[in-house]
Amino acid sequence: MLFATTLNVSLRWLRGRPLLGALLGAVGGPLAYLAGAKLGGIELLEPALALSALAAGWALLLPLLQRLATELDGFAGQPGARA
Question: What are the domain boundaries of the chain?
Answer without folding.
Answer: 17-72
